[in-house]
């Protein structure tokens, strides 16, 4: 067993002597014998001690329990109590000071040794535990600091991403608007050229052909920009349903004029308006986007001299629309992506497009709480059925 430097605190000389002998027999060194608590504390101030044997009932101001409390606080040295009584009251008081062990007098040497070993073992374990605890606390502190740092970085990155997103949409909006004005003037110049070419110019056929080309390119660029602008707004959640009463005849006339202006395939459009009142209350801009995109597609994906039916019926304050073509159709297995941005079916061939039109249609239909269904297959034409509540 380990040889320890032990301080005995005992006011009874005979008991102190017996204890000293017993401990020395076990190779421990008795570094001092104190008769009072104060003496013991003075001793600990000046000497190195591994263990204190402490009588509970000491004379003087400090009894064994109070002295132990001070030792625990100031010196962190294990204490083994010596007590003559094992009554409940005393044991309770002893437990309150968390002693390393206690020995009830009279003791035998074996018992004494066991208690000392227990005290040293307990003290060692407590110190290890304390060390672990400290390390753990340090780790927790470090991890918390790391986490806070990571959190700060994440916040910064998110803020940057938000700023970049805003900047991107502002650039898209500005550039698109900037494009639109010159495009409009190019378009009207091309149209004027066509009118002049109708007169007696020797190259009038060539002028007409090229101005038509310019017009078509400008129109498709213009459509693309309109789509980009629309998504800029949609992504910023700025597409709202703004219903207002408007006249249906000028609305549909303008729509059909614009759509027919792009009718390269010379497709016939048959319209059928059933119970459509003179004026309706809805969001004319959203309705226009929906019809314009669907009708343009119907013409664009038709074969030469094909046929498109455009039917609008009003029932119970709801518009029922059918747009039917006998064109190239949409392959069944690709139809689940039909309303995704940039989707283009494999059978489009050289027909130009951005893959944005139908996703705009879908967004507008959602905003208007409408429904849209497609019946189509490759080579079998397409029919789009819509249901749009009004008001
Ligand atoms: P795009 O600019 O390519 O026409 P859309 O979003 O309007 O983009 O349409 C997406 C795709 O859906 C088209 O590329 C085409 O493959 C298919 N599609 C849409 N309408 C029709 C139609 N009426 N007939 C055949 N295919 C169509």
Automatic annotation (TrEMBL):
InterPro entries reported for this sequence: CheY-like_superfamily, HATPase_C_sf, HATPase_dom, His_kinase_dom, HisK_dim/P_dom, HisK_dim/P_sf, Sensor_HK_Regulatory, Sig_transdc_His_kin-like_C
Domain Histidine kinase: 174-391
Key words of the record: ATP-binding, Coiled coil, Kinase, Nucleotide-binding, Phosphoprotein, Transferase, Two-component regulatory system
Keyword Translocase in record: no
CDD domains hit by this protein: HATPase, HisKA, REC_DC-like
Catalyzed reaction equations: ATP + protein L-histidine = ADP + protein N-phospho-L-histidine
Tree of life domain: Bacteria
Single GO MF annotation: ATP binding
Coiled-coil parts of chain: 115-167
Enzyme category, top tier: transferase
Enzyme Commission number, as recorded: 2.7.13.3
Domain Response regulatory: 5-120
Residues recorded with modification 4-aspartylphosphate: 55
Pfam families: HATPase_c, HisKA, Response_reg
Protein name: histidine kinase
């Amino acid at each position: 067993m380990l040889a320890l430097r032990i301080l005995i605190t005992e006011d009874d000389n005979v008991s102190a002597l017996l204890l000293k002998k017993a401990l020395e027999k076990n190779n421990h060194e008795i570094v001092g014998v104190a008769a009072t608590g104060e003496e013991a504390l003075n001793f600990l101030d000046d000497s190195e001690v591994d263990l204190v044997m402490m009588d509970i009932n000491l004379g003087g101001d400090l009894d064994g329990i109070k002295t132990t409390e001070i030792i625990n606080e100031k010196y962190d040295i294990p204490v083994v109590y010596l007590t003559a009584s094992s009554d409940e009251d005393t044991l309770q008081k002893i437990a309150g000071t968390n002693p390393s062990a206690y020995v009830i007098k009279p003791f035998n040497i074996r018992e004494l040794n066991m208690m000392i070993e227990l005290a040293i073992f307990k003290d060692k374990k407590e110190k290890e535990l304390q060390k672990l605890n400290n390390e753990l606390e340090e780790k927790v502190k470090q991890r918390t600091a790391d986490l806070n740092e990571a959190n700060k970085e994440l916040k910064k990155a998110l803020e940057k991403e938000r700023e970049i997103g805003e900047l991107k949409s502002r650039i898209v909006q500005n550039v698109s608007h900037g494009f639109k004005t010159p495009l409009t003037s190019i378009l009207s110049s091309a149209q004027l050229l066509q009118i002049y070419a109708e007169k007696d110019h020797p190259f009038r056929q060539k002028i007409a052909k090229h101005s038509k080309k310019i017009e078509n390119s400008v129109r498709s660029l213009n459509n693309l920009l309109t789509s980009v602008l629309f998504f800029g707004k949609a992504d910023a959640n700025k597409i709202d349903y703004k219903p207002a009463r408007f006249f249906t005849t000028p609305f549909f006339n303008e729509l059909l004029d614009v759509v027919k202006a792009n009718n390269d395939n010379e497709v016939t459009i048959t319209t059928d308006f059933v119970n459509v009142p003179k004026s309706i209350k809805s969001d004319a801009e959203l309705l226009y986007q929906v019809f314009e995109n669907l009708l343009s597609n119907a013409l664009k994906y038709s074969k030469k001299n094909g046929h498109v039916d455009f039917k609008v019926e009003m029932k119970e304050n709801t518009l029922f629309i059918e747009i039917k073509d006998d064109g190239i159709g949409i392959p069944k297995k690709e139809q689940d992506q039909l309303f995704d941005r940039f989707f283009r079916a494999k059978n489009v061939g050289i027909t130009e497009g951005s893959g944005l039109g139908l996703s705009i249609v879908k967004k507008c239909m959602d905003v208007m709480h409408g429904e849209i269904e497609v019946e189509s297959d490759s080579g079998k034409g397409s029919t789009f059925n819509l249901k749009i509540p009004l008001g």
